[in-house]
Specification:
The chain is of the alpha/beta class. The protein has a single domain (35-46, 77-250), classed as Rossmann fold. It is built from 7 helices and 10 strands. The N and C termini lie far apart (50 Å). The structure holds adenosine-5'-triphosphate. This is ABC transporter ATP-binding protein.
Length: 262
Amino acid sequence: MPLRAEGLGKTFRSARGAAVRALDGIDLSIAPGEFVSILGPSGCGKSTLLAILAGLDKATQGAAVVGGKPVTAPLVDAGVMFQRDLLLDWHTCEDNILMQFKMRGQPTAPHRDRARELLALVGMESAAQRYPRELSGGMRQRVAICRALVHEPPLLFLDEPFGALDALTRENLNTELAALTAHSGATVVFVTHGIDEAVFLGDRAVVMSARPGRIIADVRIDLPHPRGAHIRELPEFTAYTARLRKLLAHDGRPDHREGVRP
Ligand SMILES: Nc1ncnc2c1ncn2[C@@H]1O[C@H](COP(=O)(O)OP(=O)(O)OP(=O)(O)O)[C@@H](O)[C@H]1O
């Protein structure tokens, strides 16, 4: 499903009434099936942008448009995943996944096989009847991925889903997510602080400036699919990460410190 931000801006009112301009003039167009990573300094408005695109928050300027229609309410078809997995500790992993259907007032039985299939795809088949509290952080995020995908959403919004995990688990989950999203054909918006995972997963990496967040670069990641672990060994991979690191470090400005000795 195609997704657009048109001149999107957001100003918050702080508790004391001061204006906090989080986003300014965001224009972004995402094609169906595209995976777009969003990078930017802390507090630049990445989560706010994601929330507006998903219909969880409202823009104060411009609009989010999904499938040709302005977004005015939470997108019920979308899959979402956050840094905190938000699994319900009193339900089994399988029932957490099936919550997608319960929440929509739909029967869960027809989807039980699919839930198990997804768990197997992320190496968690033995966890179906276990409770989230018995699992490690990485295992919980695997269950959360299954929950975000089980209803086959045409859109997926991921806000730093692996931010709290160790580097190796994160790399493994990146590989699994690449395979799952390539297979599902979903349009994905992925907010991250991780330059490596932005490149590894993305068809594009969008870089935002410090607040108010504006788009300062939109880099097409021309790496082959399917994205397996070998991708990280390619010289092009390193070239992309170096380029993005530079853009983030300089916030899109020329390096004024060039030639300045410490
Ligand atoms: N409800 C709110 N009320 C007031 N200000 C807010 C609110 N939500 C976010 N902000 C402010 O808007 C700015 C953007 O926040 P946002 O969480 O979108 O940034 P971010 O890029 O996702 O940050 P991080 O990378 O640290 O998660 C921040 O300055 C934040 O303090």
